[in-house]
Amino acid sequence: MNRPRLPEVLTVAELAHHGPLGRATMLAAAQPDGPVHHVALVSDLEQVGGCRPHTALVLHMPAAQGGWALESALRTAWERGAACVIGPAEATVNRSAVALAERLRIPLFIIDEDPAQYALDLAAAVAAPGAARAQLAARCAAAISEQSSLRGIVGVLNTELPGATVALVGEDGRLLAGRSAAVDGDVSVPVPDVDGRPWARLVARLGAPSASAEETVTTILRLARTQLAANAARPRLSLARRGAQERLLLDALLTDEPGNEAERQAQELGWQLAQNVIAVFVRPALGAPAVAPEVATAGVLAGWYEEFGDQPLVPHQDGWVSWFADTDARRVCAVLRRRLPKVRCALALTAGLGEPGDLRGSLHEAALAASVGVRGRPGTVEYFGALGPRVVLASLPQEQLGPAARSVLSGLLSAPDGEVLVQTLGAVLDCGGSTTRAAARLGVHRNTVSGRLERVRARGVDFDDPEHRLAIHVACFTLAGTGDAGRDAGA
Amino acid sequence: MSEVTIEDLPALAAGAHLLMSGAGQADIEGVLHWVSALLAEHGPVPLVRPDDVPEDTVCAAVGLVGSVTAQAELPMAGDEPERAVRALEARLGTQLGAVTVLDTATVNALLPVAAAALLGLPLVDCDGMGRVFPLIHQTSYALAGVPLTPLAAVGATGDTVVLDAADERAERLLRAAVNVSGGWLFTALYPTTTGTLPRAGIVGAVSRALAVGRALLDAADVDDIAVRLAAQTASRVLGTGRVVDLEHRTRPADAHYPAHPSSIVVRTHAQPVRSIRLEAQNELLLALVDGALAAAVPDVICLIDPHDGSVIDIEAVTVGREVQVVTVPAAPVWHTPQGLALVGPRAFGFPIRHPREGRVRHPGEVRS
């Protein structure tokens, strides 16, 4: 892509962004796009009258002694077409001088260092504009390469681009790193992921927007893209690998006689399993989109660690297991209910909690509670101790009941809307035969439910027969738990 | 030849007020009453031009040196002019044939009238400043080589000081004497002959002060003042606006001058809005409009109340007050290189050139 070449002269804005003017305090920021061709150190006011156009005037005492002297220098600088005026810290700067600088559109700065040395620094930067920009780019590239996190890279950009605030914003508009003030900034650079797909944008807001500042900032934001994409991919890859390793370790620990090696590894990971724990079994809510297990694991682990910090989460069977070294299950339950919905990942999660005890026992109960919780809305957390009679349903051997249930209801399942009919029938039976309550639960009109029941009857399922009713109810419950009839039946 | 009458005194006082360039007027009512009483008793004082009298007529400038405020608090006994002149005559060994004026500003415009009335001498229409400057050697007399001393000074405590010294030394010695004499000394100084006055004095200074005073007193409103003043003195209005800032000790003070530096910032009403910065040290010394030097000492810079046309002293300026900034050109002698060296901006610590000196032109100037 052809980009316009940057002019061979630095502007006041550039010198303020990444040159010696960045060290100065800006009091009046008018016309920052003015080019700076020369630098003059002025100790006598009459020298100001001799300066060439586009000169940065560095005032030495006594040329800035008294408010009148500064105003006089500003006026003459304007008459001479100077680029900016830089006064020493001892200069008397008052409101009228700042107002005059703004009215004359002469940028005014104050420095807290020796004016002579400062003028030399400024002259060196002005003499080699390409060097100043390249130096900034090189400095940024070196600093970015040392960073190993998104936050670190964006932090470098925020530090190294004086006057600019930078943010990394996801495709969905979410702030991933940096300062929220920059989200609607002037400069935006797309950041693809490692596969080249759109992933995020780097956005910068410029303190004093100008064409040259925009060019320079864009160049440096582009420098950061590859490192950002690589850093973004790294946690996902490492999380998937870590998940696989820990799954094996947990399986080993849950055997009757876990080996010493497994226990040593668990200790190394900081897993506290010796004391009473409360196990948590996390599962995707029914109806969640099907995602490849390793991808789901990476996403869920990333979201979990973001919300719960170092709290372990280990893939196990068709979900993920965590445990809390606590004895108050209701407290843990409350924490989970509050924070589980905040876990940011593509899958809607539910969870079940076991009673406090050893991990194996507690995990068994947590899995049972989770099999009930999974039928609830995303974010549902069921506690085994609070299940009551529902524990019977949770304990049903669903894997064995599944084939029988599909056989019993095969007439319904063969219909084009079989899953809908099964879910509707289950809802009516759950509601004690009330079509009104079932309709409310499914979110459809009562007549829709009545119509569906007619089609159920037409397919030979007689759910009014007391001898069949419990069996049909259990079959519907089982199919709902396996997902065969778990899709949304409200349409 | 003309004369100064009782009726002229208010105009003389008003003109003297404007020519103070913003310095505090203090209370001159007492002096005004006293001089009026003297003129009622002795009759009008002849006001002569230097060539109206023989050129070998011995004369000396008279006036108050020190603080006018101190003089208002510790008033003159009434015999100081006579005692000072007699002491000087004794030192010179000859009698004065006329008196001249040190400066036609503040009470020093009125006191020579009192001296002339008391001594029965004519008053020469001439002074050494054409306004007021802080130091007694900042005069056209000194510029022309007329020695400041011998001088004779009389204070409120009845002491008489007779001094022979070089000009700048005389300033310091007399200032020390003022400090131990209650804050002021009535002084007779710059003894010379009337023949030197056409080249050494600012001839017509008393008449000018009277004309300025009449312009102020007779005008219908502030616009009328501007027209009348311009006709009499070629004055200019720099702008009318509101005081938005007062700053004190804004630049290093020169120890030779009494009072501390201060600044007044005025934002003008007219569009485009301008910022007028006034730099002061006892008197108003510089006026910058948007940073560009518009007027500078030795020209008079003064503030006039746009509502009632009265002269505003620096001490009476407050933020929010409305003022009209006016400049009155100094006597031509002050615009010479020697004059500007003695009382130009550089003499008051401002490292810039007076507008009359012109700017140093640099090649390739882009704006003017």
UniProtKB/TrEMBL annotation, chain A:
InterPro entries assigned to the protein according to its UniProt record, in alphabetical order: CdaR-like_regulators, CdaR_GGDEF, PucR_C-HTH_dom, PucR_C-HTH_sf
Looking at the UniProt entry, the stretches that span the membrane are none
Q: Where is the CdaR GGDEF-like domain?
A: 259-372
Which is an annotated Pfam family here? HTH_30
Instruction: Give the domain of life.
Output: Bacteria
Q: Where is the PucR C-terminal helix-turn-helix domain?
A: 421-476
Known PANTHER family for this protein? CARBOHYDRATE DIACID REGULATOR, DNA-BINDING TRANSCRIPTIONAL ACTIVATOR ADER
The entry assigns this protein to a family as follows:
Belongs to the CdaR family.
The protein's name is PucR family transcriptional regulator
Q: What is the species listed in this Swiss-Prot or TrEMBL entry?
A: Streptomyces violaceusniger
UniProtKB/TrEMBL annotation, chain B:
- What Pfam family is a match, any one? S-Me-THD_N
Q: Which domain of life is it from?
A: Bacteria
Q: What positions does the domain S-Me-THD-like C-terminal occupy? A: 167-353
Q: Which residues form the S-Me-THD N-terminal domain?
A: 7-164
Q: Where is the signal peptide?
A: none
List the InterPro entries: S-Me-THD-like_C (IPR048350), S-Me-THD_C_sf (IPR024071), S-Me-THD_N (IPR010318), S-Me-THD_N_sf (IPR027479)
UniProt-recorded name of the protein: DUF917 domain-containing protein
Q: What is the organism field in this record? A: Streptomyces violaceusniger
Organism lineage:
Bacteria, Bacillati, Actinomycetota, Actinomycetes, Kitasatosporales
